[in-house]
Structure formats: structure tokens, C-alpha cells
Amino acid sequence: MIRLDPGDYIGVIGGGQLGRMMAYSAYELGYRVAVLDPDSDSPLAQIAHRKITAPYGDREAVEELAALSSVITYEFENVSVPELESISRQRPVFPNPRLLSISQNRINEKNMCRRLGLKTANFLWAETYDQRPSLLEFGRFPAIVKTARGGYDGKGQSRVENRVELEEVLGRWPDMPLIIEEFVPYDVEISVVLTRDQQQDIVDFGVMENYHRQGILDVSISPARISEHIRERAISYARQIASDLDLVGTMTVEFFVVGNEVLVNELAPRPHNSGHLTIEAFDYSQFDQHIRAITGLPLGLSGQGRPAAMANLLGDLWLHESLNWKKAMDITHTYLHLYGKAEPRSGRKMGHITALAETPEAAARKVRQAREALTVNPPL
């Protein structure tokens, strides 16, 4: 087991907002943080003790990060697995490269679920061009065609209503491994965020209820308003996956709820957008637990104090002439997090607001009210 001392460096590949929030948790425990990112002004680079500004595949930069750090983690999935495997021969890497190789590839994810006996949407896949004709035999429409790799926030996928549309989409992605899934008319989307440490102990944050807009998470609510049967099954599935893949760190499993069934949608081997509300709503946040796990500390008992909801703040909001921060923050028990990104763009996550209340419904109303207040013209 690896155990870090205060003052030791945690190396983070990726300098986005997840890395930034990891760093805040690391600093509370006395650790230092180094980041590898091509952007010298990324959210994490702004607050890291050391920043290595280079492409992710730069061998010298990767070796510099490994030499400096006592443990390596990452805050996004599009990291080279061979690169992580190379680093892991010098320094511990959490979560492990094998887990990443599965979560990076939707085909691998689905086959892992099938191996574990966990339910998913019906699917077929083609890893080579010669296998493409088999996808045309998929007779369950509507369906979703997805690239096996590289999709997030709704990217890398297309809905098709019939075989003609399927042929058109296959022509659009001629050289990519693809998977086709039956469209799931789900009741609600949920996620389970959990952390597993080096002693194989697991702590979860219950179940989050999630709502998306144009493929991007819009609002998360905790605890999810679902039956106890669904809650127990989702947590059980997530824990089973975490143990099977020998997770160390924080991971998220996303699900569709269809009647009394829970279908696994996808994995994220890192802290997750739906878990941001744990910063205020739980004794230990998803970032706290991630840092504790990868540094060898025992996990905290993450009890939830009050129901909570989180709303993303996308760059589209900045299209307004001015944002009324005062009016939004005048709403009690709301908490603003901005990520330090200089350039707002449509669909870009610039920050989030979390609201606490006595019920999940009240928390959801409050966080939406706070976000809407941003676009109310401030008084002259």
C-alpha cells in the first residue's frame, strides 16, 4: 500500500475543473499538486504548486511529472492507456490503467457489464470496417449509434429511426469502431458516485437524480426520488463494478431507470459532475474521498447532511450583457463555484451552483431559481 506524507506531490494529468477541486481537497491534507496540461492557465494550473505545460503525449513532460510525484491520478478519460502503463512502472497510478481502458471504450464497457451479469440496453458492435454489415442487421429502432471512443457530454453519438438513417450514420464514421444500442425510453437517469480505497473499503454517496439538456448535465438532485429497490440495486451494481475493476479512487456509474429495472449506461473513472453537490451536502466530498483513497488514508464516513441540488453554469449564460451575481447569491443556502476559465463558450462548463434545502424538491427549485436570477438585469 502506498501512503503519502504531507508535503508530497500528487501528479494530476489534466488541468480542468475536476483537477482544481481535487487540489482544494489535497491542500486541506497538506499535500502539494503538480499538473500536466497543455494550457498554462487551465483551472488547475492556476492554483497548482507546479505546472508542466506540454501536450499530454509529451514523453519528457510525462517523465517529469512522474519523477516529481509520489502518486499519479487523472481528471479526464482521454489519456493514453499505454502512457499510464508506462508511468505505473515508476509511480502508482490511480485509478488503474485497466479500468481506464474499459471506461474509454463503450464496447469494452458493455462487454464488462455482460460478463458481470449487469443489465444494459441491447447492443451490437463493430470494431473493424469488415464487421460493419452486422450493424445493419440491428432491427431495434429507434437506436443510438455511438463511436466506441471519445464521446462525452452527448458527443460522438447519433440517433437513428430506421435502416436508411443507420446507413447514413455509418457512412459518416467510416473508420471508427462503433456500437449501436437500442434507444431506452427511460423514466429517469441516475448515477452512483463512490470511492474505493487501497484497503478495498467502499463509501458511496447514495444515488443522484440527473437531468440533461442537449446531452450536457443540467441539474442533479440528491437523494434521488426513486424506490428503495432501485436505490439498492444501483448501489449494488456500482459496488460490484468497482470491486471487479480493482478501483482505487472515485468513480461514477450512470444508469437508466426503466420501471423496476436498472440499466448500466456508462462509467467515469473519476469524480463526476453529478457529484459536485457532495462538497456542501456531505461530510466528505467526492474529491475529499478520492484524495484520501489515492494517498493511502482511510475513507471518511460520508453522511449527507441535507438534501441538495446542483445546476451547471454553461458559457451560454455569459451571452447576456451582465450577470446578476448578487441576486443569485442572495438566495439562502446556495453556493457558487466558478472554475477560472477565461473564455466562455456555448456548452462550456464555467461553474456550478449548489443549493441545500429540507427536501430534494425544494433544493431543485432553489438551485434553478438561483441560476435564473443570474440573468435578471441588475438595478441601475
From TrEMBL:
Q: What GO biological process term is on the record, naming one?
A: 'de novo' IMP biosynthetic process
Pathway(s) this gene product operates in, as recorded in its UniProt entry: Purine metabolism; IMP biosynthesis via de novo pathway; 5-amino-1-(5-phospho-D-ribosyl)imidazole-4-carboxylate from 5-amino-1-(5-phospho-D-ribosyl)imidazole (N5-CAIR route): step 1/2
> What broad class of enzyme is this?
ligase
Q: Does the keyword Ligase apply?
A: yes
Classification via InterPro entries = ATP-grasp (IPR011761), ATP-grasp_carboxylate-amine (IPR003135), ATP_grasp_subdomain_1 (IPR013815), PreATP-grasp_dom_sf (IPR016185), PurK (IPR005875), PurK_C (IPR040686), PurT/PurK_preATP-grasp (IPR054350), Rudment_hybrid_motif (IPR011054)
**Keywords attached to this entry:** ATP-binding, Ligase, Nucleotide-binding, Purine biosynthesis
Q: Where does ATP bind?
A: 106, 146, 151-157, 181-184, 189, 212, 265-266
Residue intervals of the ATP-grasp domain: 110-295
The lineage's top-level taxon is: Bacteria
Question: Protein biosynthesis as a keyword?
Answer: no
Q: Quote a single Gene Ontology cellular component term.
A: cytosol
**Family the UniProt entry places it in:** Belongs to the PurK/PurT family.
**Role description:** Catalyzes the ATP-dependent conversion of 5-aminoimidazole ribonucleotide (AIR) and HCO(3)(-) to N5-carboxyaminoimidazole ribonucleotide (N5-CAIR).
Quaternary context: Homodimer.
Protein name (record) = N5-carboxyaminoimidazole ribonucleotide synthase
What is this organism's lineage?
Answer: Bacteria, Bacillati, Bacillota, Clostridia, Eubacteriales
Q: Tell me the name of the encoding gene.
A: purK
